[in-house]
Every structure is written in structure tokens, then in C-alpha cells.
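Q: How would the C-alpha cells look for this protein?
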Amino acid sequence: MGRPRKIKATPVAPKHRRATESQQRKQVPSPSMDSVFAVLVASPEALAVAEIAKRAKLDAIKTGAALQRLKAQGKAFNAGRSIFGRWAITQDAADEAVAELRRSQP
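A: Here is the predicted structure in C-alpha cell form.
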């Protein structure tokens, strides 16, 4: 009995064949991305992820993923974190919404 043979890892596509980050961003928009963007455009104020998900009739995970893709494309902006996190179609609107929330907190 000799040593057990090493199991080789499954082959991975060479780096030059993998899609780059910019190529991945250029993919065709998904229906969830379209509905999330429509909610942002229709809303006069910045919204939390949960509110966007509710209005777009999507779950929070798909909404968050769509928002990240929109952010990478420069179509959505966020400000704040956690309970203060807000999304809008302009950075100024998102920043103002977070500032207003912080002012209203005791």
C-alpha cells in the first residue's frame, strides 16, 4: 500500500477566457433591474432597499443585486449604511435623505 493518490482540482478556464468585470457589467439588463430602476425613477425621494423591493414586487436579495448592477453602471447611487441606507438616481438625493434621517433620530 502506497500513499493515496492526490485528486486533481477541476480545471478552470484560463484567465484570458474569463469575463472581465467590465464585460460582466455590459450584460443585458434583467427584468428585475428594469423594475428596480423604474421604481427609483418614479420616486421623488431616496428609498431603502426594503421599500424598493416592496414597490418592485421582488425579494430583497434580487433587489440588492439589481441595485449593485445599476450602481456599477452609474444609474443608481447609495448613501448611508444599515438602517440609514438609501438609494436614489442622484447622489445628492441619496445624501440628503440620509442626512434627514440622521437629523430626525433622537
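The chain is about 50% helix and 5% strand.

The radius of gyration is 20 Å.

Upvote if useful.
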